[in-house]
Specification:
Distance between the termini: 17 Å
CATH class of the largest domain: Alpha Beta
InterPro entries: Ald_DH/histidinol_DH, CoA_reduct_LuxC
Radius of gyration: 21 Å
Pfam family, one: LuxC
Low-confidence stretches: none
Mean pLDDT: 96
Shape: globular
CATH topology of the largest domain: Aldehyde Dehydrogenase, Chain A, domain 1
Strand content: 15-25%
Helix content: 25-40%
Number of helices: 12
Structural class: alpha/beta
CATH architecture of the largest domain: 3-Layer(aba) Sandwich
Keywords: NADP
Protein name: Acyl-CoA reductase (LuxC)
Order of helices and strands: HHHHEHEHEEHEEHEHHEEEHEEH
GO molecular function: acyl-CoA dehydrogenase activity
Strand order of the largest sheet: 8-9-10-7-6-11-12
Length: 340
């Protein structure tokens, strides 16, 4: 098998990044048509996902990323990938890791997100035909050496039963949280709106809960995110908003309502769509203790406070802009795959 050529791989991936950063007419048409297959995949959201991957695939970051691993001994394992479909191209990074380590990806894509991933991989093959033999799209997963499966807490039990005898990464439900000090600027809170509303809040990196100091006044928060009010015009989002609002009103649950987002105090991390949970804290140490205790439920933390926690901490507006080395659930996928 040929020796790994990091420069060639970097150049190919960077060229793909350039194409995704500036979609041509054909890719733009595909982006605009996703809405007909999945109502959540609006042109704006699909374009955001595509260009975010494009920005991720830049020469400097690819070089830094690949340099962390010994990829000379190219793998030749068949890696089953069960991809999620909650946001556009959410499974691309797993596929990329399998290809970068020289393994073969057996891709079981979600019915909610099957077209974009095929198109992007075809673009990669056009840039370097050697990738054509490195992946297959399948309906049924069999004859595999390892598995990376992403699903819910319920499906994870199914995955663990069927795939427990081979090396695996099995991902469960996670959500992201924000920790506010009360000293945030209007601009910071506006950026937090991206963490909450991008992809309609459907991603594991979307903020579903905020932790705020005792006595926090949410008026400034609501003023700062008012620009996102158009989200209520999406019929599926609006249906979720109306449903949850009616439940809270019937049950007489205390909550805030700004016309497009419901805010409710709740100990849980996973909020329903169109709802943001919140909790109070008395000091930063108690916040850190909570996050570290519940770390397996949290994907990342959005805050300007320098927190000492095991989960990744990102700035406002950055939760849905992961870099190549920001691995889901904090598990180094490249390390896993390069040591099979």
């Amino acid at each position: 098998m040929s020796k790994f050529n990091a420069i060639a791989l970097t150049d190919t991936l960077a060229a793909l990044g350039e194409q995704l950063s500036s979609p041509d007419e054909q890719l733009t048409e595909l982006i605009n048509n996703e809405l007909y297959y999945n109502a959540w995949f609006t042109p704006d959201n699909v374009a955001k996902a595509v260009t975010s991957i494009g920005a991720m695939l830049n020469t400097a970051d690819i070089t830094t990323w690949l340099s962390k691993y010994n990829l000379d001994n190219r793998g030749n394992k068949k890696v089953g990938l069960i991809l999620a479909g909650n946001i556009p191209l959410v499974g691309f990074h797993d596929v990329l890791c399998v290809l970068a380590t020289g393994n073969h990806a057996l891709i079981k894509s979600s019915s909610q997100d099957s077209r974009m991933i095929k198109y992007v991989l075809n673009l990669l093959v056009e840039l370097d035909n050697s990738f054509a033999s490195q992946f297959s799209f399948i309906e049924r997963l069999e004859n595999f050496d390892a598995v990376i499966a992403t699903g819910s807490n319920n499906t994870s039990r199914y995955f663990e039963y069927y795939f427990g005898k081979v090396p695996n990464i099995i991902r469960k439900n996670r959500n992201s949280i924000a920790v506010l000090s009360g000293n945030e600027t209007a601009e910071q809170l506006h950026e937090l709106g991206h963490d909450i509303f991008d992809y309609y809040g459907l991603g594991c990196r979307n903020v579903s809960k905020v932790l705020v100091p005792e006595g926090y006044n949410f008026n400034f928060f609501f003023e700062s995110i008012q620009d996102y009010e158009q989200i209520i015009n999406h019929h599926k989002y609006n249906n979720n908003y109306d449903y949850n609002k009616s439940i809270y009103l019937v049950n007489r649950d205390d909550h805030f309502d700004n016309g497009f987002l419901l805010l409710k105090k709740d100990d849980r991390f996973t909020s329903p769509l169109a709802v943001l949970f919140y909790g109070n804290y008395t000091d930063v140490q108690s916040v850190q203790d909570l996050i570290n205790t519940e770390s397996e439920k949290i994907q990342c933390v959005v805050s300007a406070i320098p927190l000492q926690v095991t989960n990744q901490v990102v700035g406002f507006g950055e939760s849905q802009q992961p870099q190549l080395w920001d691995y889901a659930d904090g598990i180094d996928t490249m390390n896993f795959l390069s040591n099979l």
